[in-house]
Amino acid sequence: MTPRENILKALRREGFETVPVDFVLCESQIANFEKLVGHKDYESYFGLCHRSFEMNVQRNYTFGPNQFKREVLPDSTVFDEYGIGHSKGSAAAFHMTRMHHPLKGADLNEILDYPYPTVPENELANLSQKVKELRSKGLASFAFMQMTVWEASWYLRSMEELMIDMMMQDEKATALLDLITQFAVSKATTYAKAGVEILSLGDDIGTQNSIMIDVELWEIWLKPRLTKVIQAAKQVNSDILIFYHSCGHVTPFIDQLIEIGVDILNPIQPECMSFDEVHDLYGDRLSFWGTLGTQKLLPFGTKEQVMETTLSRLNKAGEKGGLVIGPTHMVEPEVPWENLTAIIDGVNKFQKHR
Questions:
Q1: How many CA atoms lie within 13 A of 72 on its CB side?
Q2: Using CA atoms, how far apart are residues 345 and 155, in angstroms rounded to an integer?
Q3: How confident is the prediction along the chain (354 residues), in pLDDT tens digits per residue?
Q4: CA dihedral for 296, 317, 337, 142, sign (positive or negative)
Q5: Per-residue DSSP letter, 319
Q6: CB atoms within 10 A of CB 13
Q7: Would the CA dihedral through 148, 150, 151, 156 be positive or negative?
Q8: Which helix (H) or strand (E) holds 224?
Q9: How far, in Å, CA of 190 to CA of 196, rounded?
Q10: CB 58 within 8 A of CB 117
Q11: 287 by DSSP, 3-state: which?
Q12: 3-state DSSP call for residue 87?
């Protein structure tokens, strides 16, 4: 069985030969890895069955006095494909940034006329080649499409203003969410046509202790739009696996996420949710990815605790699989190296006693 076949079988809860794992290291962790091992290819070192990538998109905004009409930005601000500004409070911020919202305070016409990104015409050919190359190496393709609907919209508008628009049933919310959904559908369709096996969607809808948005509000505004994105991909390729990421506590949404076509839930943040409880409720209908906490366990636990937690997760998932084990988020600098290798020790111990 190739690694690609192994992870797809596991994610369909049809068993597996080897436990699929996942790691995403920050830059300083990659530098430490290179010092220890002599190269940067930690994905091969840890035996990942997949490789992740993200499509190139066409940036259609132009900078100038009209881009941010209501805010003076720090000189260090950088801009993503949507034209959203990101600035760091310090060099220690890593991937956590302050966001600057170009559509904060905008009226309906400004929202309608905003230069949203688009998918370039040649991107399908590029992605198809990438998928083909990965398959020739026996690896599964994992395509990023985070900030799918909710996050891209509030990053542009600001969370406060978009939530007010939604609560007031303001047409500005309809316009913005529909335009972002249209872009998301075009990305999902392109990925599916390219033959991607795992499509990673994501919008944070949970907080540390509760949900971020009322379930009814999510049902009205976000569920139908997320459904459009998922259906667009599955209409092109019914075998594509839909991965959905949300940090925080999201248990109240899980039944409906399954209903609209989500196959894999990430990360099951243990500081906010119990993996055992979630697996008991949904493990026959849903697979999981992550589960090893980057807030407490990995930075502050012992290597023995990490190994035992890894074993506990794998034993709960059982022989059918349905779990890609790994950290719940990017591995930050404070995580000791021995705690990462302890995950592999737990995997090896599980496989030895199967």
A1: 0
A2: 40
A3: 999 999 999 999 999 999 999 999 999 999 999 999 999 999 999 999 999 999 999 999 887 656 788 888 888 888 999 999 999 888 776 677 899 999 999 999 999 999 999 999 999 999 999 999 999 999 999 999 999 999 999 999 999 999 999 999 999 999 999 999 999 999 999 999 999 999 999 999 999 999 999 999 999 999 999 999 999 999 999 999 999 999 999 999 999 999 999 999 999 999 999 999 999 999 999 999 999 999 999 999 999 999 999 999 999 999 999 999 999 999 999 999 999 999 999 999 999 998
A4: negative
A5: T
A6: 20
A7: positive
A8: helix 223-236
A9: 9
A10: yes
A11: strand
A12: strand
Joined together, the tokens standing for residue 328 give: 């719940």
Distance (Å, whole) CA 117 – CA 114: 10
Give residue 304's identity as a one-letter amino acid code: E
Distance CA 288, CA 280 (A): 12
Helix (H, G, I), strand (E, B) or coil at 156: helix
DSSP conformational letter for 118: B
Q: Which two tokens stand for residue 208?
A: 């540390």
CA 191 to chain centre: 15
The token duo for 133 is 């190359």
C-alpha 140/C-alpha 3 separation (Å) is: 7
